[in-house]
From TrEMBL:
The lineage of its organism: Eukaryota, Metazoa, Chordata, Craniata, Vertebrata. GO terms for biological process: selenocysteine incorporation. Coiled coil: none annotated. It comes from the Eukaryota. This is Phosphoseryl-tRNA kinase. It comes from Marmota marmota marmota (Alpine marmot). Keywords: ATP-binding, Nucleotide-binding.
Length: 356
């Protein structure tokens, strides 16, 4: 086997790419991925690997009630899977055997290996080396595209895949299957392992569609209206997108503007987190003061509702950079607190005055 550095350094001229296939559960991603794989193999002669997160992380991704684990745990599982994908990529780029990483979750690694074997991308090398795998000749000699099939509802999830593409100078593109929520819920209800409807509703509210205007790294993105667009016409357009991605691999040079954008997002997230904690404390303290002032129970309830609504609106405005502050990494938390306290004061006075 080879190290990641050796593999990255020996990257040859062959074309390789990563495609992120994203959208709500039951939007038709897996069906589309299979059809895309068949088309690219038959008509272009490419080697295609479809990596469905639901297949590789099935037991870990759902609990007994069909719900996903906490975001922090799910993030770790996703990153582990990307680590395995990197093992495969380094082997392909360098022409070495693929070896199992030392720190791995055995069940997930086995699912990953099965996924690659089923698509004839690798095969076991020998009985005496159970954790070494040989690459199929087609994986090394032909253009290779790996399609990652998952919800990828946050931009940050997709950015991790882009970073991998940049590290190894691969082509990169995104496909977003835009399917009406009602259609997804209906399809989901017909599945053997249906998700709870509230999970799909929640994801529908959180999903961040590719935004090439905002993020330069998302410029190679395509939105497909599912199920309005015919599969055949969608595949034709997608074919061109993937070809463009292969012919224009991501440069492995740090883009300062791109890095600044990611730094801004991280900083924004940190400020929002601190603001959320601070505003929670202010609301809690205000409710304590209201009880000390012996505000009537019914008015206490109304006050709490108004303050929590204000907090939610305030944080959303802060996130979007709309009403209260233009969002800058240098935003002082004391300014945020001051804005909130002014608004809070007007609400509190209204309820305190009702006592008299």
């Amino acid at each position: 086997s080879c190290t990641a550095e050796e593999a990255a350094g020996s990257a040859g001229p062959r074309e390789r790419g990563l495609c992120v296939l994203c959208g709500l559960p039951a939007a038709g991603k897996s069906t589309f991925a299979r059809a895309l794989g068949r088309r690219l193999r038959q008509e272009r002669g490419w080697t295609v690997g479809v990596l469905s997160y639901d297949d590789v992380l099935p037991d870990a991704s759902l609990d007994s009630e069909g719900a996903r684990p906490p975001p922090s745990q799910w993030k770790m599982l996703r990153q582990e899977l990307l680590k395995y994908l990197e093992c495969f990529l380094t082997a392909v780029i360098s022409g070495c055997q693929m070896s199992a990483p030392p720190n791995r979750t055995e069940a997930i690694w086995e699912n990953f290996i099965t996924c690659l074997k089923d698509q004839e991308l690798i095969f076991s090398s020998a009985l005496k080396a159970p954790y070494c795998y040989l690459l199929a000749k087609t994986a090394v000699s032909r253009p290779l595209f790996l399609v990652l099939d998952d919800n990828f509802y946050y931009q940050s999830m997709r950015y991790e895949v882009f970073q991998l593409a940049r590290k190894y100078s691969l082509g990169f593109c995104q496909l977003f299957l835009d399917c009406p929520l009602e259609t997804c819920l209906q399809r989901n209800g017909q599945r053997l392992r249906a998700l709870p409807p509230e999970t799909i509703y929640a994801m529908g509210e959180k999903i961040e569609k590719p935004n090439p205007q905002k993020n330069a790294w998302e410029h190679n993105s395509l939105t497909i209206q599912s199920p309005e667009c015919s599969l055949e016409s969608s595949l034709e357009v997608t074919d061109l997108l993937l070809l463009t991605a292969l012919e224009n691999p991501v440069k492995n040079i740090e883009d300062n503007m791109e890095q600044k954008e990611m730094d801004r997002i991280i900083c924004s997230t940190n400020v929002l987190h601190k603001a959320d904690q601070t505003l929670r404390r202010i609301v809690s303290q205000t409710m304590k003061e209201a009880k000390d002032e012996q505000v009537l129970p019914n008015n206490l309830k109304l006050l709490a509702e108004e303050l929590n609504k204000l907090k939610a609106e305030f944080l959303e405005d802060l996130r979007q950079g709309n009403k209260y502050l233009c969002f800058q990494p240098t935003t002082d938390l004391s300014d945020v607190t001051s804005f909130f306290c002014n608004e809070k004061h007007n609400i509190v006075q209204k309820y305190f005055s009702k006592q008299h």
